[in-house]
Amino acid sequence: MRVAVLDTQVALGMKVEFYDPLGATFGLPTYPFKWAPTHLATRRQLRSRNLRPGGQDIAAQILWRHRGKRRVAYLYDIQHAKAKRTATPAQLAAVGKALLARRFCTSCQQLKPYYIPRRYGECLDCIPGGAA
Ligand SMILES: [Zn+2]
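That is the input. Now the predicted structure with zinc ion docked in place:
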Protein backbone atom coordinates (compact mmCIF):
# COMPACT_ATOMS: atom_id res chain seq x y z
CA MET A 1 0.00 0.00 0.00
CA ARG A 2 1.37 3.39 -0.99
CA VAL A 3 1.65 6.36 1.34
CA ALA A 4 0.61 9.53 -0.50
CA VAL A 5 2.80 11.90 1.51
CA LEU A 6 5.89 9.77 0.96
CA ASP A 7 5.08 9.33 -2.75
CA THR A 8 4.97 13.12 -3.03
CA GLN A 9 8.33 13.46 -1.30
CA VAL A 10 9.88 10.88 -3.63
CA ALA A 11 8.32 12.63 -6.64
CA LEU A 12 9.90 15.88 -5.47
CA GLY A 13 13.26 14.18 -5.48
CA MET A 14 13.61 13.90 -1.70
CA LYS A 15 15.36 10.83 -0.44
CA VAL A 16 13.01 8.75 1.70
CA GLU A 17 15.00 5.96 3.26
CA PHE A 18 13.15 2.67 3.87
CA TYR A 19 10.07 3.48 1.80
CA ASP A 20 9.51 0.51 -0.51
CA PRO A 21 5.76 -0.23 -0.69
CA LEU A 22 6.18 -2.96 -3.32
CA GLY A 23 9.14 -4.66 -1.71
CA ALA A 24 11.29 -4.19 -4.80
CA THR A 25 14.37 -3.28 -2.76
CA PHE A 26 13.91 -5.00 0.59
CA GLY A 27 11.93 -8.10 -0.44
CA LEU A 28 8.95 -7.14 1.72
CA PRO A 29 6.76 -4.04 1.52
CA THR A 30 8.76 -1.65 3.68
CA TYR A 31 7.86 1.59 5.43
CA PRO A 32 9.87 4.09 7.44
CA PHE A 33 9.31 4.38 11.18
CA LYS A 34 5.81 5.73 11.98
CA TRP A 35 4.68 5.53 8.35
CA ALA A 36 3.10 2.08 8.14
CA PRO A 37 -0.51 1.83 6.89
CA THR A 38 -3.01 1.57 9.74
CA HIS A 39 -4.36 -1.83 8.71
CA LEU A 40 -1.00 -3.34 9.62
CA ALA A 41 0.23 -3.91 13.14
CA THR A 42 3.16 -5.43 14.99
CA ARG A 43 2.77 -8.49 17.18
CA ARG A 44 2.68 -6.28 20.26
CA GLN A 45 0.12 -3.95 18.76
CA LEU A 46 -2.06 -6.95 17.93
CA ARG A 47 -1.65 -8.22 21.44
CA SER A 48 -2.80 -4.94 22.95
CA ARG A 49 -6.06 -5.52 21.05
CA ASN A 50 -6.23 -9.12 22.25
CA LEU A 51 -5.26 -10.43 18.81
CA ARG A 52 -2.52 -12.70 17.49
CA PRO A 53 -1.11 -13.12 13.97
CA GLY A 54 -2.79 -16.52 13.76
CA GLY A 55 -0.35 -18.18 11.38
CA GLN A 56 -0.53 -15.54 8.67
CA ASP A 57 2.61 -14.53 6.79
CA ILE A 58 4.41 -11.29 7.55
CA ALA A 59 2.65 -8.63 5.47
CA ALA A 60 5.23 -5.85 5.61
CA GLN A 61 8.04 -4.43 7.69
CA ILE A 62 9.17 -1.18 9.23
CA LEU A 63 12.85 -0.35 8.95
CA TRP A 64 14.69 2.35 10.84
CA ARG A 65 18.12 3.14 12.15
CA HIS A 66 18.95 3.09 15.81
CA ARG A 67 22.46 3.76 17.11
CA GLY A 68 23.96 3.03 13.74
CA LYS A 69 22.18 -0.29 13.36
CA ARG A 70 19.25 -1.13 11.17
CA ARG A 71 16.23 -2.25 13.15
CA VAL A 72 13.21 -4.11 11.84
CA ALA A 73 9.62 -4.61 13.01
CA TYR A 74 7.43 -7.09 11.19
CA LEU A 75 3.84 -6.17 10.46
CA TYR A 76 0.73 -8.32 10.20
CA ASP A 77 -2.63 -7.63 8.62
CA ILE A 78 -5.15 -6.87 11.34
CA GLN A 79 -7.96 -8.32 9.20
CA HIS A 80 -6.35 -11.75 9.23
CA ALA A 81 -5.49 -11.67 12.92
CA LYS A 82 -7.23 -14.08 15.27
CA ALA A 83 -8.41 -13.67 18.84
CA LYS A 84 -5.78 -14.29 21.45
CA ARG A 85 -6.20 -17.62 23.16
CA THR A 86 -6.60 -17.74 26.92
CA ALA A 87 -4.77 -20.39 28.91
CA THR A 88 -6.88 -23.14 30.45
CA PRO A 89 -6.63 -23.72 34.23
CA ALA A 90 -4.65 -26.90 33.48
CA GLN A 91 -2.16 -24.95 31.37
CA LEU A 92 -1.73 -22.31 34.08
CA ALA A 93 -1.18 -25.07 36.64
CA ALA A 94 1.45 -26.65 34.40
CA VAL A 95 3.27 -23.34 34.01
CA GLY A 96 3.19 -22.87 37.78
CA LYS A 97 4.71 -26.31 38.31
CA ALA A 98 7.40 -25.64 35.72
CA LEU A 99 8.38 -22.36 37.36
CA LEU A 100 8.51 -24.06 40.75
CA ALA A 101 10.73 -26.81 39.32
CA ARG A 102 13.24 -24.20 38.18
CA ARG A 103 13.75 -23.18 41.82
CA PHE A 104 14.21 -26.70 43.15
CA CYS A 105 17.77 -27.91 43.73
CA THR A 106 18.06 -31.65 43.13
CA SER A 107 21.33 -31.86 45.07
CA CYS A 108 20.11 -30.56 48.42
CA GLN A 109 16.37 -31.11 47.77
CA GLN A 110 15.59 -27.52 48.73
CA LEU A 111 13.31 -24.94 47.19
CA LYS A 112 15.32 -21.76 46.66
CA PRO A 113 14.01 -18.19 46.32
CA TYR A 114 15.85 -17.94 42.98
CA TYR A 115 16.06 -20.00 39.79
CA ILE A 116 18.75 -22.69 39.84
CA PRO A 117 21.48 -21.58 37.39
CA ARG A 118 21.35 -24.00 34.45
CA ARG A 119 25.08 -23.59 34.00
CA TYR A 120 25.66 -25.47 37.30
CA GLY A 121 22.48 -27.51 37.60
CA GLU A 122 22.40 -26.97 41.33
CA CYS A 123 21.88 -24.15 43.79
CA LEU A 124 24.56 -21.62 44.73
CA ASP A 125 25.15 -23.44 48.03
CA CYS A 126 25.78 -26.79 46.31
CA ILE A 127 28.18 -25.56 43.64
CA PRO A 128 31.64 -26.99 44.38
CA GLY A 129 33.79 -24.13 45.59
CA GLY A 130 30.77 -22.07 46.59
CA ALA A 131 29.05 -19.22 44.79
CA ALA A 132 31.16 -17.43 42.21
ZN1 LIG B 1 21.40 -27.18 46.57
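Residues 105, 107-108, 110, 122-123, 125-126 surround zinc ion (CB under 6 Å).
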